[in-house]
Design brief:
alpha+beta; 2 domains; 5 strands
């Protein structure tokens, strides 16, 4: 999708450059997208990822669309000694759908941020 998005941006930039008579530069190109992809790594649900000293992140199934995830962050506050659990998610799926798994329900979260459409 990143490569396709780059292709569209390049095409749009060329169109606008002709229309406006000045050079419009796309945010990124297909070459940029290909270089970016080499730096990505796949992480499965439930895999606790160390990001820094005392900072971990885990993806959990959000049950919204295939591959959607909510993020669970665990942060050890060096100043207060507190262990903070923070969760962020975009849309969450619903229970009892025929194809998608139900969203994981995390417990004992200190901070929760959710996207809301309705």
């Amino acid at each position: 999708m990143l490569q396709d998005s780059a292709r569209i941006q390049v095409h749009d930039a060329e169109y606008l450059s002709k229309k406006e008579g000045k050079t419009i530069i796309p945010l990124y190109t297909e070459e940029d997208a290909l270089q970016t992809v080499t730096q990505l790594r796949s992480v499965g649900y439930g895999q606790k990822i160390p990001l820094d000293v005392g900072v971990f992140m885990t993806f959990h199934d959000a049950g919204h669309i295939l591959g959607s995830a909510l993020e669970e962050w665990e942060i050890d506050d060096k100043e207060t000694g507190e262990h903070i659990r923070f969760c962020f998610s975009g849309d969450l799926g619903r229970k009892h759908l025929p194809i998608l798994r139900e969203p994981v329900q995390l417990k004992d979260i200190d901070i929760l941020i959710l996207e809301s459409t309705y």
